[in-house]
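Why should sequence recovery work at all? Because a backbone constrains its sequence more than one might expect. Tight turns favour small or flexible residues, buried strands favour hydrophobic ones, and helices have their own preferences. The token representation captures these environments compactly. In the example below, the structure is given first.
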């Protein structure tokens, strides 16, 4: 069970786990679903009187990854999810869950489900440190430069962004996107003043 605030990389980590499992065991059956998608598919199966086929789909899965568990809702959906957890774990399969909150804070779920999820390995992704924030910014700039090689953000500007924008990776990505748009459409060199303006918009907006 992986939990962290929004934008700290839970979804990226789930995808990385899936790719690594497939790399090590190419024939492994790995399924990634958001909690909302799980609920939607289950409700559709019930409407179509095909709930058994829905459950059978998971019997062949070696690893199930569920994202955004805080959005799982509905007594019947929760019960079905519980059955699938039992089926997977009883069969020696693996389950990885990600959420914005730890199991004991998922108030939409009943006590039994919260307790069940808390019995596994529960780990938190902490806040991004300065070095990681700087690397994320550098990576995003390189991605922009693939199609626009002349795009640049001075090193001191990147360091300023990494120092001031501490909330999430999405915030950092948003900063690079805004600076790129400013550079591309306003034909403006990225200066400290421009960076200060973007930081102000992101922090106060």
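From this structural description, the recovered sequence reads:
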């Amino acid at each position: 069970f992986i939990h962290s605030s929004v934008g700290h990389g839970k979804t990226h980590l789930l995808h990385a786990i899936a790719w690594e499992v497939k790399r090590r065991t190419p024939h492994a059956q790995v399924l990634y679903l958001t909690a909302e998608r799980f609920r939607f598919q289950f409700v559709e199966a019930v409407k179509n009187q095909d709930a058994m086929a829905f459950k059978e789909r998971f019997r062949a899965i070696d690893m199930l990854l569920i994202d955004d568990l805080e959005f799982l809702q509905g007594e019947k959906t929760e019960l079905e999810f519980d059955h699938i957890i039992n089926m997977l774990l009883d069969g020696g399969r693996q389950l990885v869950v990600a959420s914005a909150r730890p199991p004991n804070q998922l108030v939409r779920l009943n006590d039994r489900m919260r307790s069940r999820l808390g019995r596994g390995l529960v780990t938190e992704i902490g806040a991004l440190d300065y070095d990681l924030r700087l690397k994320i910014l550098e990576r995003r700039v390189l991605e922009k430069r693939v199609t626009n090689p002349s795009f640049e953000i001075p090193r001191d500007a990147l360091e300023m962004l990494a120092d001031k924008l501490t909330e999430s990776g999405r915030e950092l990505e948003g900063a690079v996107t805004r600076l790129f748009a400013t550079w591309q459409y306003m034909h403006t060199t990225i200066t400290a003043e421009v960076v200060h303006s973007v930081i102000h918009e992101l922090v106060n907006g």
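A few observations help interpret the result. The mean pLDDT is 89.
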